[in-house]
Each structure stands twice: as C-alpha cells, then as structure tokens.
C-alpha cells in the first residue's frame, strides 16, 4: 500500500465517521426526541408548548440546519488536513 493510498483511506475513514456522528445526532433529535421520547418531554414547556412537540416541529429542523453548517466546517478542516481542499 502506498502512502497516498493510506492517506486516502484515513481521509475516507474520517469522512465516514463524521457522517455517522451527524446521522446519529439527526436521528436522535428527529426520531428520538420528536417521536419516541415525546411523552417523557411533555412536562417540559418551551415557547408555550411541550418540548416533545417543539422538537417534532421546530427543534429537529434547527438541529438539522446546525448539522449542515457543522458538517461543512468539519469537512473543510478535514480537506485542508489531507490536502484536498478546493
């Protein structure tokens, strides 16, 4: 295995790890908090409604937008680290 191949493998490994973390956070917030844990979050109010409803309607969208910017920021850093930036 050449050094270039090792660098490509570490780049894709880090990329897939980042994607996995983002997907787990997204699933936890949208499916977990918005659907599965909604009855547990019903006693906590935010903005005049319960927290489970808030996550289902607005919180998951806000977290998703945060994840988009977080992913772009981390990928830019990863690209610079491996010398494949635009």
TrEMBL record:
Every copy of the Sodium symporter small subunit domain together lies at: 9-85
- Write down what this protein is called: DUF4212 domain-containing protein
Keywords tagged on the record:
Membrane, Transmembrane, Transmembrane helix
Specify the taxonomic lineage.
Bacteria, Pseudomonadati, Pseudomonadota, Alphaproteobacteria, Hyphomicrobiales
The secretion signal range is none
Keyword Transmembrane helix (UniProt): yes
Q: Record keywords: Kinase included?
A: no
Task: Provide the transmembrane region boundaries.
Answer: 18-41, 53-73
Which InterPro entries does the UniProt entry name for this protein? Answer: Na_symporter_ssu (IPR019886)
Superkingdom of this entry's organism?
A: Bacteria
